[in-house]
Amino acid sequence: MNLNEREEFYVGYLPKAPAGVARHTRKAALAIAIGAVAIAVLLVMGQRRFAESFFEFGNAREFEGVVSEYPVPTLIAQKDGQVGTQPAFSYYALVAEGKHGAEAIVEGFDGRRVKLRGTLIHRENTAMIEVVPDSIKITNPGFSAANRPVENLGEQTFAGEIVDSKCYLGVMNPGHTKPHRECASLCIRGGVPPLFVVRDAEGKSAVLWLVSERGQPLNQEVLDFVAEPVEITGRVSQNGDQLFLRADPRSFRRIH
């Protein structure tokens, strides 16, 4: 070793580090900063994007259509225009404010043409209205049930997740999986109709309204399965753009 060469040594209380130490420190700091930015970008890119869902909170507006009480409270509103020679309809599931279903609100209105005020909740092809209390008014004293042909799609088996429809469709985002389980259980216990969310191999999802074999509401019976992966076998039917799965809760099976 050349005796004229000295090893640099930095004492913390000195106002300035030796040139060699400062150079290495700058390089290390720059590498750490670049690494932190790269990790942050990778984490953001790896996150699953939020679904295109929304809740028009504070923007109640008027809707008109025919009420269907069963199997899920629904407002069937005629669209402008037609599909072929048949009128086209929009189907809005109905819920009450807070964590409550709309069964009590729509009782006695089945088949009636009404106007109501409510707040729109929407996710992809499924829409819901949170009904303003005491806003349903009959516009036609007679019955005027919409033409609602139901197509039977046979018995099928699906794997998916049971969610509360109100949060999943837009009030919460994301409104599913175990972090949302307690909220979902409270909503379903309060009468919000459950949805069964299924996905294919490509990750595309579909939703089915989950009801009993007789088309009656299923709420208390499904609480133990909410937000868990389950397999359900039942009869599938289609009413307009809505899919229904009629199943016996005793046959639900947890899966991994």
Word description of this protein:
With 256 residues, this protein is α+β, with helices and mostly antiparallel strands. Helix content is 19%, strand content 40%. The chain has a five-stranded mixed barrel. A hairpin with a 5-residue loop joins strand 2 and strand 3 (74-83).
Provide the residue-averaged pLDDT. 83
Radius of gyration: 28 Å
Q: Predict the CATH topology of the largest domain.
A: OB fold (Dihydrolipoamide Acetyltransferase, E2P)
User: What is the succession of H and E elements?
Assistant: HEEEEHEEEEHHEEEEE
Strands, total number = 13
How much helix is in the residues?
Answer: 10-25%
Number of helices: 4
**What percentage of amino acids are in beta strands?**
35-45%
Question: From the helix content, strand content and strand pairing, which structural class follows?
Answer: alpha+beta
Uncertain ranges: 1-5
What is the topological layout?
Layout: H1 19-46, E1 53-55, E2 61-68, E3 74-83, E4 86-95, H2 103-106, E5 112-123, E6 126-131, E7 137-143, E8 150-164, H3 165-171, H4 181-189, E9 194-199, E10 205-211, E11 229-239, E12 242-246, E13 253-254
Parallel strand pairs: 4-6, 10-12
Antiparallel strand pairs: 1-5, 2-3, 2-5, 3-4, 5-6, 5-7, 8-9, 8-11, 9-10, 11-12, 11-13
